[in-house]
Structure formats: C-alpha cells, structure tokens
Design a protein that fits this description.
Layout (H helix, E strand, L loop, with lengths): L3 H21 L3 H26 L3 H31 L13
Helix pairs in contact: 1-2, 2-3
Length: 100
C-alpha cells in the first residue's frame, strides 16, 4: 500500500508547477494549463484522502471539480478567441490596451 504522504507530495509538486506556470507565463493558453494543473493537484488530494478515510465523499467532490474545470476551459477558450481576434496573439499583456 502506498502511503498517503506520497500522494500529498505529488499533489504539492503538481500544484507548485501550476503556480509557477501561472506566475511566469504571458500566454493565455499556458494560463489555462496552469490552472488545470492546480485543479488536478486538488483532485489528487481529494482522491487520496477519500481512499485513506474509506468513504467516497472526496471522490464526489473530485467530480464536481472536474465539472468546474470543464466550465472554466469553455469560458477561457472563448476569452482567448476574443483576444486572438482583436490582437492576433494570445499574449495577456496586450489585453491591457482594451481598457477605457
């Protein structure tokens, strides 16, 4: 049996990679990928604790997180398409010119 600490270390590493990608990238697609990594790290934690405690509550919340991630991607792709249509690039620093 794999100890629960290993799952927590894996989730922490995936979450840190997501935060690093979110803070250092300027591409909107990479922003979305970084947020997805952070949500997957939360799902790893939910599944690990669900298995550790022997109930399915964490797995149920994991399904809700996946539904939230799908909705987030749908909205994010729409925003990225508008960015690309207006600026011919998906660089998020160009969007500051859209202010009043």
């Amino acid at each position: 049996m794999v100890p629960a600490e290993w799952y927590l270390i894996l989730a922490a590493a995936v979450f840190c990679i997501g935060v690093f990608g979110l803070l250092t990238r300027q591409n909107a697609l990479l922003f979305l990928m970084s947020v997805e990594l952070m949500l997957n790290a939360a799902n790893i934690n939910l599944a690990a604790f669900s298995y550790y405690w022997g109930n399915v509550t964490g797995q149920t919340f994991g399904l809700f997180v996946m539904a939230l991630a799908a909705a987030e991607v749908a909205v994010g792709i729409g925003i990225i398409l508008v960015l690309y249509r207006n600026f011919s690039a998906v660089d998020v620093t160009d969007a500051t010119t859209m202010r009043w």
